[in-house]
């Protein structure tokens, strides 16, 4: 009886160790993609706050940071961008929304900032509906 309890405890410890190791391995493997998505969410929230408050300088700064995050997005998902035309289409729609030359050329107001923020958010949401 004592041998069975000891064997069961040993199996539980081994299972816990293996489970932790596998979880840690998977977390390390996907850390870049999660980091990019976390940064994108952070800067999108700041972009929305700047649009709501009418802070055009902050809005344009966050738009630039989102453009940088877009470049990281193509590096975080290189196979998806290269091989999946739907992903490429959605990623390019985000690029076009963030780097829209007509939006960068017109004067910034709270109305145009709000419309631009909605366009960028819609591009993000369209991709997340497909790839969540």
What does this structure look like?
The protein is mainly alpha-helical. The protein has a single domain (32-131), classed as Four Helix Bundle (Hemerythrin (Met), subunit A) (Up-down Bundle). The protein has seven helices and no strands. The chain is elongated.
Would you count the extended β strands for me? 0
The largest sheet, given as strand count, sense and whether it forms a barrel, is:
none
Helicity range: over 70%
Give the helix tally. Answer: 7
Query: If classified by CATH, what would the architecture be?
Result: Up-down Bundle
End-to-end CA span? 49 Å
CATH top level assignment: Mainly Alpha
| Overall pLDDT level | 83
> What string, H for helix and E for strand, traces the elements in order?
HHHHHHH
List the helices and strands and how they pair.
Layout: H1 2-29, H2 31-53, H3 56-76, H4 78-83, H5 85-98, H6 101-105, H7 110-131
Helix pairs in contact: 2-3, 2-7, 3-5, 5-7
What's the gist of this structure?
By secondary structure, the protein is mainly alpha-helical.
Give me some keywords for this one.
single chain; 132 residues; mainly alpha; Four Helix Bundle (Hemerythrin (Met), subunit A); elongated
């Amino acid at each position: 009886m004592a041998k069975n309890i000891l064997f069961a405890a040993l199996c539980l410890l081994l299972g816990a160790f293996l489970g932790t190791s596998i979880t840690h391995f998977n977390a390390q493997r996907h850390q870049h993609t999660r980091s990019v998505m976390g940064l994108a969410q952070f800067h999108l929230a700041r972009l929305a706050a700047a649009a709501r408050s009418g802070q055009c300088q902050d809005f344009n700064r966050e738009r630039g940071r989102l453009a940088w995050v877009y470049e990281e997005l193509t590096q975080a998902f290189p196979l998806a961008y290269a091989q999946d035309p739907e992903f490429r289409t959605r990623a390019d729609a985000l690029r076009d929304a963030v780097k829209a030359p007509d939006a960068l050329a017109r004067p910034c107001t709270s109305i145009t900032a709000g419309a631009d923020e909605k366009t960028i958010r819609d591009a993000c949401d369209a991709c997340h509906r497909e790839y969540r």
